[in-house]
Amino acid sequence: MSAVWEKVARWTGEERIGELLMAHYGLRLEGAVPVGGVLKIDTNRGTFALKRAGEGGESHWRGVAEVGRHLLAAEAGRIPVPIRTRSGGFTFAGYVQSYVLLPWILGKPVSYTRPKDFRDTSKGLARLHAGTRGFRPSSFRLRVFWPRTWERAIDRIGLYRVAVDWSSSAGELDAAFRDAAPYAEGMAENALRYLHRSGVDPLAPEIASRGLVCHGNLHGGNLLRDERGAVRFIDWNRMAWDARARDVAQWLLYAYGRTGDLDLLAVLLTEYQRADRLMEEELSLIYALFLYPHRLMRVLDRIYGEQSLSPDRAVFHLAQAVAVEEKKLSLLRRFPDLVEGTLGWKLPRVDWLERRI
């Protein structure tokens, strides 16, 4: 086994990844280094990114390839399109995991130290969403139904509470859970009530007509500036068939988490609006997504559902998720005013947030 293969085997657990690359793509492995969540591999035919295919597997990456081709035809930007295997698929099975091979994108991480970095990303996101408008996947794709998803998450938290109450342990993690769980349930219920009160259906045809492809994982690690200075959206392993409000909410939350600057969020909404106009109903969806405690719910699922975090790591991640929710309260209180001042639209308000100002 070559030195390169030995390194890859240590990183992936795959002792014969070189043979698999040759068999599926005709590529000879010449070098490899971990970068973020992928392996940057050098071959006899250039540089590529090797990534675990994830839960969606072949079907997911076939969808990503279809979106990439649609964007290219619409001249609305480029995304890393998975490379076909010799057999015509988009993933291949290793001995430990399934993998997808992607082109290596030349670029540098966006620094997000300047307002321009945020503005350019907002414009790029709007262009991406506009470019996917009218896209229809070749096979049936299940869309996300937020109320059902959120109701199931609330039910899971209830089950976790029962399990913790019946547990014989009384450690730091369970104490932190008992503090966080009521808040998580309460905010998820607030998000559900707000969605019903607004009367906006995320599955409505007029919402769908504005685009139904979401990147689904917008943060600094998945955004690059290419050699031309354009912002590129990479790492499409969480792409979802959902209302674009999901991406916009996630992007605004990321920007607020980085800066705590509500004035910047007004600028970002304006930049998006100039590039691809949002409907008033979509702002209500964005606010409902702000209310829902996504990160906190995800951490609780990892701890008690998947049991994928050790107790020490679980305490740390839970504390981080709670801190994110606490920081978000100021945004929740002031976002309706920000929307009215920036776009002239009045969003329904949450009474208890108004009383806490």
TrEMBL record:
GO CC field: endospore-forming forespore
Keyword presence, Transmembrane: no
Keyword terms: Capsid protein, Virion
A Pfam short name: APH
Domain of life: Bacteria
Protein name, entry field: CotS family spore coat protein
Domain Aminoglycoside phosphotransferase: 42-275
